[in-house]
Specification:
The protein is an alpha/beta fold. It has helices spanning about 45-50, 75-90, 105-115, 130-140, 145-160, 170-180, 185-190, 220-230, 250-255, 270-275, 275-295, and strands at about 5-10, 15-20, 30-35, 55-60, 95-100, 120-125, 195-200, 200-205, 235-240, 260-265. Helix 1 runs parallel beside helix 11, helix 2 (about 75-90) crosses helix 3 (about 105-115) and helix 3 packs across helix 8 (about 220-230).
């Protein structure tokens, strides 16, 4: 991967959050938010390209990369949103744009709604509807049942613990198998910031296995409609035609006041890695157009 960012460690609500920063401090800021079980350095190629005109900030989310873990009860959407909000304040950002992938995009949507006076643009990759929210629309579940399921998964995660691999090659093979659409050299580069070796145990992924625990409150699909209604900035949505994530329907998209959608033919869920040049070009054009709008407002 290209680019050599500055690495900053922030104290956010008593927890250490690692952040990679590119570009000039006086430039308009763009915060890149990665997805589940990923890390901030996954954005390296995108960040290096955007840094020619922007200050680019790419944190490791809590429980991911080199940021501190938060425990089984610490991975609700609102907690992630609060971290990105606090990071923006730590960098004294009066205005900023957001780019998010999957879970990171879902976080960005909620922050754009809650911090609407400061967020001037949002580019999201396959992020509008989380799987649990689609499931809730298809088969609504009473809150008590959702809570019981969460408690069961929490106990299972505690019993399961962290998986270790005897060799780095075995961990890489696992990642290659999960992402067959990505080039082998890219998977290797992503893994360079994702793996750590524990003495006498072996290699493991840096993310907390419990990040998969979605809080029962995150499942409420009507909250998503409230979020979309509250977003005032322009939004660029990107979806791959070969992804397992379906494009949200027109009624849900219509809640966004200003949005455009880009479809990537034959792309999977990690379309920004499969079609990096196109993604950078479209995202840069989108940001440039709306950054100029704010500059001259």
């Amino acid at each position: 991967m290209t680019g050599h960012p500055e690495t900053v460690t922030l104290a956010v609500d008593g927890r250490h959050i690692q952040v990679a920063v590119w570009g000039h401090a006086d430039a308009s800021a763009v915060i890149l938010v990665h997805g589940l079980r990923d890390h901030g350095r996954s954005w390296d190629r995108v960040a290096a390209a955007l840094a020619t005109g922007y200050r680019v900030i790419a944190p490791d989310l809590r429980g991911h990369g080199d940021s501190d873990w938060a425990g089984a009860d610490g991975y609700a959407l609102a907690a992630f949103v609060a971290d990105i909000h606090d990071i923006a304040r730590a960098f004294d950002l009066e205005r900023y744009a957001l780019v998010g992938h999957s879970l990171g995009g879902a976080i960005a949507l909620r922050l754009a709604a809650a911090d609407a006076d400061r967020v001037w643009a949002l580019a999201g990759i396959e992020c509008v509807e989380l799987p649990i929210q689609r499931d809730e629309v298809a088969a609504p579940t009473p809150y008590a049942v959702r809570l019981r399921h969460w408690l069961d998964r929490r106990a299972q995660a505690r019993a399961r613990g962290t998986r270790h691999y005897p060799t780095r090659a075995e961990a890489l093979a696992r990642m290659h198998g999960q992402h067959p659409d990505l080039a082998a050299d890219l998977v290797d580069a992503l893994a360079a910031h994702a793996l750590v070796h524990d003495v006498d145990k072996g290699w493991r992924w840096k993310f907390d296995p419990r990040v998969r625990l979605r809080a029962p409150e995150d499942q409420r699909a009507h909250d998503l409609d409230d979020v979309l209604d509250a977003i005032s900035c322009p939004v660029l949505l990107s979806y791959g035609t070969s992804s397992w994530v379906p494009v949200p329907g027109p009624a849900r998209r219509a809640r966004l006041k200003c949005h455009q959608i880009s479809h990537y033919a034959n792309a999977g869920h990690w379309l920004h890695h499969q079609f990096t040049s196109r993604f950078i070009a479209e995202t840069r054009a989108f940001l440039d157009a709306h950054n100029r709008t704010h500059d001259h407002a």
